[in-house]
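Protocol step 4 of 6: record predicted structures for both targets in the notebook before any analysis. Target 1:
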Amino acid sequence: MQQLIECVPNFSEGTNLTVINQITTEIETVDGVRLLNVDPGKATNRTVVTMIGEPEAVIEAAFRAIKKAGELIDMSRHKGEHPRMGATDVCPLIPVANISMEETVKYAQRLAKRVGEELQLPVYLYEAAQPDKKRSNLSHIRAGEYEAFAKKILHPEWKPDYGPAIFDAKRGATVIGARDFLIAYNVNLNTTSTRRANAIAFDVREAGRVKQENGKPVKDEHGKTINIPGSLKAVKAIGWFIEEYGVAQISINLTNINVTPVHIAFDEICSKANERGIRVTGSELVGLIPLKAMLDAGKYFLLKQQRSAGVSEKELITIAIKSMGLDELSPFKPEERIIEYMLANKAGSKMIHLTLSDFADETASESPAPGGGSIAAYIGALGVSLATMVANLAAHKKGWDDRWQEFSDWAEKGQQYKNELLQLVDADTKAFVKIMYAYALPKANDEEKTLRTKALQEATKHAIEIPFKVMELAHASLQVIKAMAETGNPNSVSDAGVGALCARSAVLGAFMNVRINAASYDDKIFIADIIAQGSAIEKETIALEAEILKIVNQKIGL
């Protein structure tokens, strides 16, 4: 399985597009790396770049970008609102898929070592990549910023992890590390006061504020100042005034969105701002955001309204954007800001993104794909979509207000089955392409024949597993369909019946594909097991469909 890491270098240039383009061009010269986003900020004079790819390619691209930034940016002339200490101020690596934090740390340390040695640049490790936890905090490393660094680097405790312990007046220093996914996020206020914005930031950030009495800091028995913690964990925040927008903002780093998601941070800031007579007018995202974070936000705000959260991805994202005012300062385009959508766009079009007529035309064409497996998956998606519709209609039915949560839960389950089945529409086509690719491999000698046979067997097994997964999901979706036939909006019971027919067709059709591909697979024990499981699923599906149709026909009554 392909390993993916994200890299989000921050460069100390936010206005000169010629400089920014030269740096990003270096990234784009590396095969296997996708440049997902370039986000320059005028007031901060800083550009946040997001790229993703396989680890080796990403650290090569990061090295080239750091080198070019050092050539083009002169830190002795740099001014900006954001804390900084180098031309490439910070360069984190973030595990995205099929790679652990421990593995990511090793790549970060390799990159830091190469930058320090080959570019003769002072480099500090931070977060998970820093073995010495006393100096792993980015704000601690960057304290004093570029202006104080000439003296700071001379202290033994601030000797760089890699590179020379010499102040580089032009390039400054760079911080390289490994961390969990961080969301940089700004909340807009209806005030121009940096002091008021900071007060709200101190209310919510984990570090809080220094405790004071009579205007003086309170210290403990060891002489250390006592902090009053803020209300949110894994949150860093400061207030600032953005001249470009003419308003104050709270600039936030959400360092662990599993602890404090973006929607919780937004709501808490709204609450704290309101207590101080200030109103939140909207917010803005810096860089990219995972799809799940946006979907969770959409569900959160729908549930606050006591509405069904079992709606489409598109609707959830729209609710999230409008609820948090992500489009207040500029348009928020999901295809450009959500990381999974960016990857999908880069990967090219998919069958599930075709129009209904184009999909039908493609199926009817001379091309052998999409075939029966893809169609079975699509039929299954349509079947559970009908049940999900019934659940959503029931959640809004007049007189059923006390049952909205029950139907919302069913609708969410239905959406999950629908989404997984839609992904399998394309997965089945890709499985077929993989078999065709294996057939096209050379077989001129024994070694090539062995490699070709191995590739064919692996591709065939994959082509068995995909339609079998369709069977499992379509069969499981019948529980949602049955529940809606029994308890859903009675005016839509026929829709549940059609959904059952679709689910049954999906299971039986997918099983045909399992069996026809199984005939070419050599592992007979695996085949015997998969056929036995498939036969049981088929039998249970036929019986369950009969139960649902009986319920439906009794309610229709004619």
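Target 2:
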Amino acid sequence: MRPDCRKFYKKKLSLKNLHKIRGQVLLLGIIALIIITVGILILFDVQRIIRGKSKTIAAIDAAALTGANWQKHSLNLVGELNLVKACTVLITDPAYGLNADPDNFMKVEKDEYGNIKEESLDRAREEYARLEATSDTLTQMQLRISFVGPLVGFGAAQQAAKNNGLTYNEDCIKFINQMLHYLQIEDFYVHDDFVKQEYFGYRWRLPYIAMLSAIREGNKGIAVGTNVDLIGLPKLYADPPTNPDYLQYIQNRFIIDAILGRDWCVIKVLVDAAWTSQWWGNIKLDRSNQKLMTGSEIMNLGLEFLPARKADDEFGRKNFVRQRAEADSIIAPGGIAEKDVAELAGKKNRTVLTNAYNQIDPVDSSGNAVNDEDMKFNPLPALTWAVFGSSWTPYNDVKELEASFRAPFREGAAYASGALSYFSVRIPIQTLTSRFDFSRNLSFGRSSSGGRQMTENMRYAGEGIRKSGNIFPISFDAVAKPFGLLELASGEKRPPYAARLVLPVFETVTLVPVSLECPPGLPMHDYAWVLYITKYLPTLGQSSGIDEALSKLPPEEAALVNPLVNALRLLDSPEFRNQGKTWLDAEATGHNEYDPVTGAFIRHVTDSLNRDHCNDWKKCNCGMCNGGPRRGLDPMS
């Protein structure tokens, strides 16, 4: 180095000039360290979230498949018992207490004058009664299966979820506790006036409570939840009705989420409505009709029990002729009228009994009585059959199938099933970055509008972090169901409910798209929504204001429900509704008109408004549709 250069550098590095360059490397190092640290935290959080999602998906799928497998076994077992009822073993095997000869079972004899012998008629009645008692025993077994099978499947699904890494879910356990509370003391479940307490000799309520309690206590409780269509769920209605029916809207979780998210297209009916004070109306409970508990409310099989005769618990067993006449009046069109039944039941001479017997056994295809050839009473009215309920139906009867499926349905498989194994879970993930709030002291160019907006966005984000304590709640759900087919002699395949009678034809279980099947009822994993439906809304009907109704709930429950009640507060606000109207009536598309000669601007023409595009790109799920391009005013502003 030249001497003059060395002299120059010595001068530059003199003590009096060091203060001008000291700390620059340290500052860069600190900035780099902060960036690396934040990057590591974010990378760790991303890995944690991905791992949590993967674990949750595996657990939910395993739970759904496990539950569906138990539903399959339960349906097949119920179907096997239907076949047992139809077998001749019922009238030949001493194990059933019948010990009868098939040739003479329920057969009557005539005297030389052609009249039925009284003693043979009495014997036929007794044999009929024994057959009926045997059928009722088998029906009770089917009824027990419809309770026990789904609940065992629900318990097995919990173990499958836990084996895949999930632990107990506090909301699900709260739901089960509330359900048990209803079953133990709620009038609707306890009294015959609302729910019949005994079917075919089976008193269902206490065993049902015991099974639910065992599942709750077993192996650290509930890990994943399902939708439960509580038979004791309050059915709310407004009297007099409101227009629109506000109550039906605010009972829908989809609508509540749309209100909180300011999805104006979804709630445009509410935004456009004429509002008054206490717009929700006079809310009342409807519990007028007696219900039937024909199975577990959890993972219900969707079955019904169809008797071939009418039961009369008040007067006990009726005269056999009346029973038979009632039965055939149900089975065949054109059966004996009720006014004729009483007359037939009251007359005892052999001629009338003979005529009655000929009328009620059997009938032709037109429902007209024909002469009996085998002299046997028809055993079918003594039997009660397990049949598929109305929830088993073709998809086309309940929804318009979207054309976006990659492949068509398998033959005979395009049906909505009453037996659904649906499971869902919501798990809040506590991330490391959520523990730090960078928004309090950060400022990005306060002198510019862009910088002020960024600062404001950071402040809102930080406030959300402080309130929620987490950023990424993981939610997943899955649906599986059992599949079976009835194959005709022609080779054509039909869905299992085509015969109405439950038969043991279910062979496989598989996952199905969640959008295809929407189980009714309340979600276990969302206890706040359960409280909102079962407690807050009935209380609102007896209150003059939204916050007054909230104040009547216990503090813990009010705190859980309050975020949902915020949606009602927004609806109640004229400013909120006006904001929605402004966006809906804002221009979506338009064009300018110009003078064709001079090219001068004439006017601007609006072609369409935002509300005209609410059904663009229509997307439907579980009966609720929304969609459309979001133009004009930002709906989140």
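Step 5 preliminary note on target 2. The two ends are 66 Å apart (CA to CA). The first strand starts at residue 198 and ends at 199.
Proceed to step 6 after PI sign-off.
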